[in-house]
């Protein structure tokens, strides 16, 4: 089944919907915001997935095993140039209102004729912090 | 002390020098290939460093504690648009000729008047691999 793509006018628009889909475990929306080709997804501690179908399946697996009930995200850095945008985002995973884990993500979006789509999500768990490091 | 910036004509040029500096623990070269502002560095398992001086100091600390003797890097994905380039790179850390760890990095480069400089390095350790995941 070929998922129809959602349409986004700005990188901020698609990022908001990405985190809505992530928070609500919505696999259909997640499938609609990734580009079909030239994509890379790296979940925390994992290898790189470079195939659209496998990326969407990996999000389905994450959603099936989700034990959190909220994500607060803060943009650490945002860059846009022509048809490419790179955001670094701090994701605070919430369970029962408390932060259970902090993940840093590099999200890359590309502008197609129909609008912006996600082409990369690289996430890593923050396990230790040292001098000069910040999440925001 | 203000380090003078190196000059790179392409994202591939600066990436090659970045890994040369990484492999040879050359803090001066590392200092010369990062932009002075708008930078983000995330070492494996760590928080985000968004200040040039702290980023360069963090590389110095890594070089002081280096126990490997080689890095083999493979570009998983490369994108360029106008003055922004995003590379996903698999880094195989070698000790005595063997791969001791695999790290995935998103490297972002920006084109300035003087040439390309590094503006982001987001690295994460590959701790597990599952179906459909690849390093290349």
Task: Describe the structure in your own words.
The structure is a homodimer of 136-residue chains. Chain A is an alpha+beta fold. Chain A has helices at residues 11-23, 27-33, 52-64; strands at residues 40-42, 48-49, 70-81, 84-95, 98-112, 115-125, 133-134. A six-stranded mixed β-sheet of chain A has the order 2-1-6-5-4-3. Chain A is globular and about 40 Å long. Chains A and B meet through strand 2, helix 3, strand 3, strand 4 and strand 5 of A and strand 2, helix 3, strand 3, strand 4 and strand 5 of B.
Strand order of the largest sheet of chain A: 2-1-6-5-4-3
Strand content of chain A: 35-45%
- Count of β-strands of chain A: 7
Low-confidence stretches of chain A: none
Q: Kindly state the mean pLDDT of chain A as a whole number?
A: 91
How would you describe the shape of chain A?
Answer: globular
Taken in chain order, the helices and strands of chain A follow as: HHEEHEEEEE
Mind summarizing the main beta sheet of chain A? 6 strands, mixed
């Amino acid at each position: 089944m070929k998922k129809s793509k959602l349409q986004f006018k700005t990188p901020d628009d698609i990022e908001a919907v990405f985190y809505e889909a992530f928070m609500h475990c919505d696999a259909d929306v997640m499938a609609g915001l990734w580009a079909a080709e030239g994509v890379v997804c790296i979940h925390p501690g994992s290898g790189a997935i470079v195939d659209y179908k496998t990326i969407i399946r990996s999000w389905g697996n994450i959603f099936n095993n989700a034990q959190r009930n909220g994500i607060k995200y803060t943009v650490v850095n945002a860059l846009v140039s022509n048809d490419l945008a790179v955001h670094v985002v701090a994701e605070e995973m919430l369970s029962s209102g408390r932060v259970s884990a902090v993940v840093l993500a590099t999200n890359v979006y590309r502008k197609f004729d129909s609008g912006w789509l996600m082409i990369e999500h690289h996430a890593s768990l923050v396990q230790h912090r040292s001098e000069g490091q910040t999440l925001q």
